[in-house]
């Protein structure tokens, strides 16, 4: 491995300063760093009424788009109440275009996913093309580069903002204390190997999805709820009634099975996630309630997961 010698840093360069446990002191609503900047003590006023318990890390960093310095404090937050399984569950199939959920009462809920990336795609590409026509690092180049980065920042802020709102809604609007989501690490992205234009961009969103699950998890924990990841293998492909496996390319929006089950593909996977969690944990009372309630709204899943229902679970491992 080649050793990297420190490169030249311009006068405007500012490295993020990271403090772990020492090098700073929080007194009242002020934070004081042990370092000085050109003999000026580094003291910042913190927002009114902020409480920091068990501070883990403090970052002092410079945002060159906004031209401002920031202090980020990582600390522990106590949850309002402890988690307790109240026998109610809410399963979610998280997708690129929508999140579809089903609860113990057999009720479906849908959140369509805002896609600021489709809006920003064109302006960002145009700015990049214009920038690349200029001499690198020239005044014009730098101006366009700044604009491009501003657009990218705006786009990612909009995605983040939307994710915060939806995850909060999910946690607040359910009476279930347990929220089930598919485990992304085993998620099979259909067709992702084929070079379908436009699809690669959408599979990139799995990165966004894992951040979304992160938001969901901490917001749930604060409200005394819990997010549990369920093995997602075959939840899209298996019919939720009889368990038969079908090829489900992305354009196929409906699961239409020979057994007579016709159900929206995302609803079908949400039901599968719920069924898998309840059977894996032998929560048979919860399962019977769910199956009974679901019958009133649509899919007639077996009252007791029989041999046909078990088959995909076993092969899905
Ligand atoms: Zn079927």
Strand-residue proportion = 15-25%
> Low-confidence spans: pLDDT under 50, at least 5 residues?
190-197, 307-317
Topology as H/E string? EEEEEEEEEHHEHHEEEHHH
**Helical residue percent?**
25-40%
The Cα radius of gyration reads: 25 Å
Distance between the termini: 41 Å
The general outline is: flat
For the largest beta-sheet, the strand count, sense and barrel status come to: 5 strands, mixed
Judged by helices, strands and strand pairing, the structural class is alpha+beta
Total DSSP helices: 7
What binds here, in terms of ligands, is: zinc ion
- The total strand number stands at 13
Residue-averaged pLDDT: 85
Q: Count structural domains.
A: 2
For the biggest β-sheet, the strand order reads 9-8-7-10-11
Overview of the structural elements:
- The protein is α+β, with helices and mostly antiparallel strands and 317 residues long.
- It folds into two domains: 17-76, no CATH class; 89-114 and 167-316.
- The protein is built from seven helices and 13 strands.
- A hairpin with a 4-residue loop joins strand 8 (98-103) and strand 9.
- Helix 1 (116-132) runs antiparallel to helix 2.
- The longest helix has 34 residues, at 139-172.
- The protein starts with 16 loop residues before the first strand and ends with a helix.
- It binds zinc ion.
- Zinc ion binds next to loops.
């Amino acid at each position: 491995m080649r050793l990297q010698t420190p490169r030249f840093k311009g006068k405007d360069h500012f490295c993020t300063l990271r403090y772990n446990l020492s090098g700073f002191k929080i007194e009242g609503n002020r934070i004081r760093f042990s370092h000085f900047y050109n003999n000026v003590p580094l003291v910042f006023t913190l927002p009114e009424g902020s409480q920091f318990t068990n501070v883990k890390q403090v970052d002092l960093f410079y945002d060159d788009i906004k031209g401002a310095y920031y202090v980020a404090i990582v600390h522990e937050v106590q949850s309002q109440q402890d988690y307790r399984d109240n026998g109610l569950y809410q399963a979610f199939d998280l997708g690129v275009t929508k999140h579809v959920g089903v609860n113990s009462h057999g009720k479906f809920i849908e959140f369509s996913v805002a896609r600021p990336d489709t809006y920003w795609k064109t302006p960002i590409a145009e700015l990049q093309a214009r920038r690349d026509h200029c001499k690198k690092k020239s005044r014009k180049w730098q101006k366009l580069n700044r604009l491009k980065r501003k657009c990218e920042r705006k786009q990612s802020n909009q995605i983040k903002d939307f994710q915060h709102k939806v995850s909060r809604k999910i946690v607040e609007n359910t009476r279930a204390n347990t929220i089930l989501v598919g485990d992304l690490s085993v998620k099979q992205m259909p067709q992702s190997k084929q070079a379908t234009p436009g699809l690669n961009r959408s599979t990139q969103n799995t990165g966004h999805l894992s951040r979304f699950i992160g938001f969901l998890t901490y917001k749930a924990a604060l409200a005394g709820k819990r997010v549990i990841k369920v093995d997602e293998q075959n939840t899209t492909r298996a019919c939720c009634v009889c368990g038969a496996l079908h090829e489900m390319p992305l354009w196929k929006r409906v699961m239409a099975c020979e057994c007579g089950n016709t159900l929206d593909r995302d609803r079908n996977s949400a039901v599968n996630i719920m069924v898998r969690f309840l059977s894996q944990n032998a929560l048979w009372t919860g399962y019977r309630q769910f199956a009974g309630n679901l019958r009133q709204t649509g899919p007639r899943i077996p009252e007791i997961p029989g041999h046909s229902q078990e088959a995909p679970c076993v092969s899905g491992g």
